[in-house]
Amino acid sequence: MRNEWYVACRSDELVGDMLECSILSTELILYRDSAGVAHALHNQCPHRGARLSQGELQGDCVVCPFHGWTFDGSGTCKLIPANGPHAPIPKQAKATSFPVQEAGGYVWVFVGDAEVKALQVPTELTDPDWRAVPFLAEWDAHLTRVVESVLDVSHLPFVHPESTGTDVNPMVEGPEFRVTGQEIVIVAKPYHPLVRTPLNEEEAGGSTITFTWPNQLILRTDMFQGNQMATYLALTPLTDERIRIHGLALRNFIPDAEAIDEIHYEHNVTVLEQDRPVVEGLRPKQSPLALKEEVHVRSDAPQVRYRNMYRNALEKEQWGGEGHEG
Questions:
Q1: Which of the residues 191, 210, 231, 245 has the least number of beta carbons within 10 Å of its own beta carbon?
Q2: Are 173 and 187 in contact (CB under 8 A)?
Q3: Torsions phi, psi of 244, nearest 5?
Q4: Within 10 Å of residue 300's Cβ, how many Cβ atoms?
């Protein structure tokens, strides 16, 4: 699924020298020019395939370590030393560049070749009243399996009996969910590590899990007196079988409480580490697109809807047209 925005790094990580990353097996370099604008180039010189990350930044340009070819943020070659001072630069002497956008404290890159889409992030990421504590994880897993693990609330009492699955009855009907456009929203049991017992849903409003196509998830929990906590996940496939999870532990109250920072951070890291070996062990690595290849029950309904969304989008990307709903 290349024609989408993916997080390359946090904005505050992209300072000084070039930064290397990979998105869907496309190796990139990221850097900021003198105006602070972020750029992304393919980490390969078009001349002899040298890694541009082994070169250096000179002003607003990247200099190849092999022959000194110099490229600006658009990939345009500005200098070929061995070509002489007056010879024209061949048009094909251009490094591949990719659209970049900064939003929600992250640097996002669009690695596809289709028309660039609008990028939207949850309001919690841009609201200054929300405290954000970052965390990071990498799994040997496919994007589809990771998304489905978050949408699957029925696994909580089995994989997370001492964290998010505390006091969750495994015998349930549901879950309650709705699908609107590019979103799947699940109404889940209210839970948060700072509140060890279920909240009063009439007063607090409960918890929701919102998936926004193709790779953003946010788990929101109403606390008390209008206060909220949330966990945000942006999923970046490094390859087809390895994924980086960029996370934020969010809250809109007591922003300077380091103890709450630590509790919320540790909770999220613990939950992810509990999920990791299970999700990494799933076979096949990618969720089957044909629903008949696995057995589904009522509690799997959100994941089934996600698979239909994924299959439809994949068909549109590969073949064009509108795909189909299944």
A1: 210
A2: no
A3: -110, 130
A4: 19
